[in-house]
Automatic annotation (TrEMBL):
Domain Transketolase-like pyrimidine-binding: 8-172
Organism: Candidatus Thalassarchaeum betae
One of the GO BP terms on file: sulfur compound biosynthetic process
Alphabetized UniProt keyword annotations: Thiamine pyrophosphate
Gene3D superfamilies for the chain: 3.40.50.920, 3.40.50.970
Coiled coil: none
Keyword check for Disulfide bond: no
InterPro entries xrefs: PDH/Transketolase, THDP-binding, Transketo_C/PFOR_II, Transketolase-like_Pyr-bd, Transketolase_C
The name this protein goes by in its record: Transketolase
Lineage: Archaea, Methanobacteriati, Thermoplasmatota, Candidatus Poseidoniia, Candidatus Poseidoniales
Cofactor(s) required for function per UniProt: thiamine diphosphate
Length: 315
């Protein structure tokens, strides 16, 4: 595989996706004083009458979004991932329980955020939103996929949570093949037969690097961008479990309740194949550069390679 190019961060793709939806008068955008950071500010610049800045009041933002959804609008509400958790009760009772179509975006999720430290590094957001009945959970891997999935949400019924990243990552998709993405369907980036790596977010590029290194040792690796964590593409997981005989999950999130947890839940009632999880263990984050933290928390290409070898040994 040729080296991927660098695009923007997935949060940039979210902002561009909102702009592509501007012609739909039902679309409204809400932010909680972080429009510049989540990139919803671009929509505000071009569509100020359909943008609402709530201020530092995330709980209120979610209920305002719920009210707008109940009035026929399609609200996109964004803030930092960690601050969406402040509004969990409002999301649960005001959005998810009445099955309203509100699309929530949590930016700056995960260890990859870096120097902001443990208080700002949400490593549990995906697990939290996976527990809500009817909630679709997305974690795109680059700016183009974030843009495409954001655009697709306008026709998606029911609430959703999308996690985006702060920092630039290698671009996995291009302007042509990104249109093949579909909410609820994993995207097979690379086909192999010895081990399958299911990854999301910033860990997709790390997984591709790991696959390249493993290939030099004669190990054939499948790599999947599992951008939708709920509903999980169980049919794809079953196919790859059968073809490869073992699975590795890779995520910048706690292995408790995240992608690893979701895959483990499915495998426990289906095909019993070895599963190794690469992700944050039972601990909080720290302050440091993204590369330092990825190494400290075992989220590097080398860690994925080691997990792949362990999974193969357990076949």
């Amino acid at each position: 595989m040729s080296a991927p190019s660098f695009g923007g961060a997935s949060r940039d793709g979210y902002g561009k996706g909102l702009l592509r939806l501007a012609d739909d008068p039902r679309v409204v955008v809400l932010d909680a004083d972080l429009g510049k950071s989540t990139k919803s500010c671009h929509f505000r610049t071009q569509n100020p009458t359909r943008t609402i800045s709530i201020g530092v009041a995330e709980q209120n933002m979610m209920l305002v979004a719920a009210g707008m959804a109940s009035s026929g609008k399609i609200p996109f509400a964004s803030t930092f991932a960690i601050f969406t958790e402040r509004a969990f009760e409002q999301i649960r009772n005001g959005i998810a329980r009445p099955e309203l179509t509100v699309h929530i975006c949590g930016s700056h999720g995960g260890i990859h955020t870096g120097t902001d430290g443990s208080s700002a590094q949400s490593i549990e957001d995906i697990a939290i939103y996976r527990t809500l009945p009817g909630m679709t959970v997305l974690h795109p891997c680059d700016d183009l996929s974030a843009e495409e999935l954001t655009v697709q949400l306008v026709n998606h019924s029911g609430p959703s949570y999308m996690r985006t990243a702060r920092n630039k990552t290698p671009r996995i998709y291009n302007e042509v093949n990104v249109s093949n993405l579909a909410i609820g369907k994993g995207s097979v980036i690379r086909e192999g037969t010895d081990v399958c790596i299911l990854a999301c977010g910033v860990m997709v590029s790390e997984s591709l690097s790991a696959a390249d290194e493993l290939a030099e040792s004669g190990i054939s690796v499948s790599v999947v961008d599992m951008h939708t964590l709920k509903p999980l593409d169980c049919a794809l997981v079953d196919r790859l479990a059968s073809e490869c005989g073992c699975i590795v999950t890779a995520e910048d999130h706690s292995v408790i309740g995240g992608l690893g947890g979701a895959v483990a839940e499915h495998l426990s009632v289906g095909q019993a194949v070895p599963l190794e999880m690469v992700g944050v263990r039972d601990r909080f984050g720290e302050s440091g550069s993204p590369s330092e933290l990825m190494s400290e928390f075992g989220l590097t290409s080398t860690d994925i390679q080691n997990a792949a070898r362990r999974a193969m040994e357990r076949k």
